[in-house]
Every structure is written in structure tokens, then in C-alpha cells.
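Q: How would the C-alpha cells look for this protein?
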Amino acid sequence: MAAKDKPNKLAFLSMPAPASYVAGLGRGASGFTTRSDIGPAREGPSAEVIAEAQARRGEEAEVDPEQFQDPDNEYGLFAGTTYEADDEEADRIYEQVDQAMDARRRARREARENEELAKHRAERPKIQQQFADLKRGLSVVTDEEWESIPEVGNLTRKKRKRDERSFVVSDSVIVGDRARTEYETSLDSRQQAMGGFETPAENGTITNFAEMSQARDKILSLKLDQVSGTATSTGLQTAIDPKGYLTSLDSVVLKTDAEIGDIKRARMLFDSLVKSNPKHAPGWIAAARLEEHAGRTVAARKMIKQGCEQCPKNEDVWLEAARLHNNDDAKVILADAVQHVGQSVRIWMAAADLEHDAKAKKRVLRKALEHIPNSVRLWKETVNLESSAVDARILLSRAVEVIPQSVELWLALARLETPDKAKAVLNKARKAVPTSHEIWIAAGRLLEQEAYAPEKTAEQRDKELGMVDKTIEAGVRELRRHQVLLTREQWLKEAERCENEDAIRTCEAIIKATIAMDVEEEDRLDTWTGDAEAAEAKGNIGAARAILAYALRVFPDKKSLWRKAADLEKTRGTKESLNAILERAVHHCPQAEVLWLMWAKEKWLAGDVPAAREVLERAFVANSESEQIWLAAVKLEAENGELQVARELLVRARTVADTERIWMKSAVFERQQGQLDNALETLATAIKKYPKFAKLYMIQGEIHQQRKDHAAARASYAAGIKACPKNIHLWILASRLEEADGKSIKARALLDKARLANPGNDVLWAEAVGVEERSGGAAQAKTVLARGLQECPASGLLWSMAIWAEPRPTRKARSADALRKAGSDPWVLCSVARLFWAERKIEKARHWFERAVAANENPADTWGDIWAWWLKFERQHGVAEQQEEVAKKAVAAEPRYGPTWQPIAKDVANTSKGAREILELVAEALH
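A: Here is the predicted structure in C-alpha cell form.
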């Protein structure tokens, strides 16, 4: 009973295993699955069954992204489409974006990778690094210590079996080793039958081959000495040039084994090609060139000869054969070639090139024309060989009969004919080739050439030049009628070509007839202006002038167009053409003050003061309240000594125009004449009228300062600062007044207030640095300069001061920092030029001065100090022509600003001096 109640410990063997049970998994075994476990293979549910089940469950069918894949093209259905310019541009843009994004992240990524690599090396150093210190220690090991190192023995404490196997040595090895040091002293049966040695040894001795080798080397050395010219004992030396010999050795092409193998493989390929397709001419040519490259000229000629036999109708094979042979053989080959390809122009031209005599060339070319009479190239070459114009004309007459469609031949014939006959030729050409614009342009140029004949009167000339315009217009109409539509750009190129060939009127006629083509009405002004600027940039002044003239006829009231035309004539034209264009300009735009002023100034510069007065009088009629015209009239009279007239004009201007600038000029005029009381009265009245005009306070303060009345000057500047706190020049003048009065502390305080009212202003910081330098605080000046650079990091003025504040050895490094921060600023560029000047690098300094004067964004804000530095440089290192060129450029630039320029230019003593004299004074004042 007890046995029945006892549980069976092996009952689990008859139980089914769990679903996830793997036998032996607990002790590390891994299970596997066989087909007997999963049963036979069977089909899964079909796509329809799966779709129906998904529909019942309310699920959407999954779209396979590969279902639209082309089975024949795994890349995509659209991979075979045309790769157009838009696709290329899109790919380029995406690539630029990727590059920009990669560049933005590259520094961070590289730093992270380097950090990770360093960390990895620190954690897991290489074996080489682990033993690096030990390897370095080996350098101090002596030879005795090295020799005392014991040999490595067997430290495994295991017995190793010895290899005690033995091998049988061959009998031939033993016999050979035994006979190696023996000499043969007997003859075998064959030698006895043939008579023994052919050359008996002397005295029975044995030949010593070592001595023979030494004798051979000695003989070779003697021969080499004779060839090089060093052995002169025999008197039969043959000297050669060692350098030439080495040069000839350099010219020898040594082919490597790889190149030789490539040549052999290519030879096999070409051999297979010409055998499988013997009518394929490029194969024969390639095979011949391969042999030529390999240095086998004879084989190349033989190969190309076979090509000529197999492909007699191919001109390239014959030309290649002629190239591979010498001149005489090439003539024979080409003579054979014309029998097979007599219509090949290239064959005949090659045959003519082989002839060195002009008569022989003519004979070949005329023979060619018999076979190919419709070849323009052959006719042109034949005509070019003729030295007589009559013979050339006869040939061209025949050529245009044979080839009436050739425009080149018609034009060549017209150039050789007289003007009357040339007209007839061009008329025939126009009928033969009605679609050629070159013929119409040639006709216009012919009419222009006739119009400028010396015997023609002015009336006849104008009439015939009018015919040029009509001819070009008719040509454009005829070309349109024949559906020949040239674009505007093509016509403009033709016009520029005519101008380059001195056909100015034809150029103008082409522009007049075609400039309005394909241009929308609202875009005409911008398009024509751009065309004129492009033509001027190319140096085609006639084309630019013609474009502007046509634009002015369409837009006669556009002041900007007249200004462009006037500027063009001023820079590229004559005084007469400039006066003519300005007179027309003020007639069409009487309200344009700048045009009146330009005209008056040109008259004045030409020395015609009455004409300038007349222009200004006419300008007063059209613009009675113009401030600029009133001031120009005052300047004209004052410069010419009519001071009373100038004063009366200013009084009338204050009444009629009554502007703040006229009041200021009135005060300046009185100050220049020494009438300080009148100037102060004028300023007091002006300040009441215009209390926000800062220049009035400046002039008033300067007059008081000139009178040594510092209290009144201080009051004037204080009133100006109160009315115009944003004007930095008032702050600077007030600071300099305090500095001149010996109150540097108050000057600093004023500049501190100025920087609070005008933050980020580099001029105020520069003035503060100057105050510290003038008061003797060099260290404090550097501190202020550093603060200024922190607030204005891109200020070229401050960077320039920072460069010169450094000691001489560190200025170059400071200039590099300045170029990185403000590389396009004229002050920085000027400082770099001065550094090169100090280092005696003259050309570099001159180049940097050129960059400095060209770096101003606004040409009107030209810095006079930079021009003066350049002139000072040329005075020391340049020639007279360079100095004059710099001075002329500076005067043309009309500089107005600069820390040294302005005080000198506005000094009352320099009122009557011109820009050239002011430039000389500034150059002398700079240090």
C-alpha cells in the first residue's frame, strides 16, 4: 500500500514537453529545428484571402513600395529618362547644400573623432606604445651588455622529440662534389678522334680565367677613354660631347615590362580586330599607331599599307599612310589615293601641303578643282596663293558661278572689285543668297566707305551716310521676310565687329535698326542701359554711344540717361561732343540741376568764364530757387575775383532760395574774406532759422576759437551739442577746444558722454585714443584702443591705429589680424602698404596702395590722407611719371575727408588752393 502511494519520480518522461522546451538549454546546449518538427511545406494564404481578411478586420491594404519597380531596371522606371540642364542644376544645388552642411559640421565632427581616438588610444594603447620606453632604453645598452644576454632556451619544461630522420644522398651529388675541385687531364675517345684541343696550351699550363676577365676590363676601359677624349697618347682620339651624349640617352624611351605587356596585348586585340573586320578603317589606323608608338615604324607602314588595300575608299587611312612616310613617298601615296577617293578635299589639301613650291601647289589645287569644283575651301586656298589681284578676281568670278551659295566667296570678290563693280557684285550676291545678313552689312560698309571719300562734300557725305541706315533697315526687313530671325545679341555682336573694323556708321545703323527687337515696352530702359554699359566695358564706345542715342530718342526726358551719355563723352569723347550732348540734355531736361552744373563746369574748366556765366544765367531762368545753381554761381564769381558780385549773389540767394546751406556758405564766405563780425551776425540769424543744422554751430565755435575767445567757443559747441547730440564732429571739436585750453580731463569726459550718446562709433574711440597719446599716456591709449576694438571689431580706422601702436616686430602679426577682421577697409590696406614700404618691398607697397584707394564703397567719400600717403611713397621711390599719375588720379577722385586732409583743406589760408596743392600740403604734413 505504501508502495502505491509513493510518487513516481520518472513520470515526467511520459509527459509531453512544453512548447518552448529545448533539451539541454540549462547546460548551454542550443536547439535546432528539422523538417520533421515543422511538417511538410505548404502554401500560405493567397493575396485575395489576405485582402479579404484585412477588409473584414477594417484594415487598409499595405502598399508595397516595390510594386511599381521595373523588373528589367532595378534602379527605377525613370532612370532612363534624359538628363537635362535642370536636373544638372538641381543636382549641383543639392551638392552645394550638402557641402555647406558638411563644412558646418566638419570642425565639430573632426574634433569629436580626434577626442574619441585619443581616448581609445589612452585606454587601449598599441603594443608599440607600451614598449616605447623600453625601446628608447635600448639606446644606452653597450656592446658588452648586449653580448652577455643569454640565448633563449626551452622554458616550457616539456621534452621535445628530436627529429632523427636521415636521408640518402644521390650518387650524382657525391660525384659532382668530389670532382668540383679537380682538373681534367685526359682526353675522351671523341676528343682523341677529333684531334684533341683545337688550341694547345703553352707549356702545358692551365688557362687562368680570372686574368682573362681582368684583361677584358682593362681593354674596355681604354676604349671608353679613347671615345671620351681622355686618351691622347695614340693621337687617334675621337672626342664626343658628354652633355650631348647624356641628352641623347635621356631621349631614349625605356619601356617597362608593364608597358611592353600592354603593347603586346593591344597588338593581339588589334590583330584580331583587323582580321575579323578588315573593312574597318579605324582598326587599321589604330594598329599602325600602336606599332609607331612601340618604335616599329616599318611595321606601322606595312600595317597601314594593308589598311589602304582593304579600305581604299576611306580618306583617313590614306592620310595616315602619308603621315607615316617621308615627303616623296607621301606624294606617291596621295597620288594613288586620289584615284580611289578623288572627291576628298582633305586628300587634295594634304597633297598641296606636301609641295614646297608655289607653282606646284597651284597645280595641285587646280587639279583638285577639276575633280571637286564645288569646294569652297579649295577655291579659297587657290585664291590665297595668287599674288595678282587680277588673277584672284578672275578665280573668284569663276568660283561664285560654280558655288553661288557661298557668301565668303561673294564678299571676297566684292572686296577685290572697284566700288561701282562691288555694288553690282553685292546685288548679285543678295539675289543668290537672300538669307545672308553678312551681304547686307557689307553693302552698308561699302556705302560708308564711299561716303568718307576725300572728294565728297559735307552734304553729299551726310546723304550717303543716310543711305547706310536705309540699307541696313531694308536688310533687316528682307531677312525677316525670308524667315531669317537673328537675335538682338547676334546683331549687337555684328555691330561691335563693325566698330572694331572702323565701320562706325554701319555699327550705329545696325543698332538703330535692331536694338528694339525682342524687348518688352516696360523693360526697354533697363535693357538698353545694360547694353550700353556692357558695350562700354568691352571698349566698344561707338556701340555704347549709339545705344544711348537711340534710348534718348525714345526717352528724351530721362535725366539718368542724359547723365550716362554725358559721363561717357566726358571719359571717352571730346570736349565738343560733351558740350553738344549737355546742350541737348538741358534742352530736354531743363529742371535737371546736375546737367546745368556739369555744362557750366565744363565751360569753366575750358577757360571760357563768360560762357559758364551764360549757362548759369539760363539755369537761373529754369530753376530760380535751386540751391546748387546759386552756390555754383557764387563759387564761379569768387574764384574769378568778383567778390562783390559773389556777396550780392549770396544776399539774393538768401532771399530767393533761403536754405540752410546757403546761409552756411554765406558765413564761410565772410570768414574767408576776414569779415568775422559779419560772419557771426550771419550765423546768429541762421541759427535762429535752422537750430538743428550742426555746421552753423561748428563755424561759430571755430570763429570764436580763432579769436581766442574760448568761453564763447565753449558756449557755441555746448549749444550745438544740445541741439544736435548725434553729430560726432561737434563733440570732437568741443573736446579739442578743452584739450587746447589745457583741460585734458574735461576732454576725456566730453568724449565719454559722446560715446554714450553715439554708441559704436569708431571715430569717437579714435579721438579718445588720440587724446591719451597727446597727453603722454601710451599705456592708457592702448587700453582705450582695446576697448574700442571690442565695441567696434570691424573698424578699419581703429585696426590701423592698433597696428602702429605695436612695436615693430609684432606689427606684421597685428596687420594679419586686421586683415581678417576688416580686410576691405581702406585704412587697413593703407597700413599694410606702409608696412611693406618700411620693409623696402616697393612693388608690393604700390600694389596695396592701389587696393586702398580702390576700396572705398562710395567714390565721393574718398579719403584724402590715403592719396597723400601714396603720393609721399612715390615721391621717395617712384619716377616722375608715376608721381604725376598718382596726382592726376587723386585730383580726379576729388577727395574730401581724412584726419589730416580736412583741417588743411578747410584752413582759411588755403581757400584759393586747388586739390593738387592741398594734396601736396597733406603729403608734406604726414609723418
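The radius of gyration is 50 Å.

The chain has 50 helices and no strands.

Upvote if useful.
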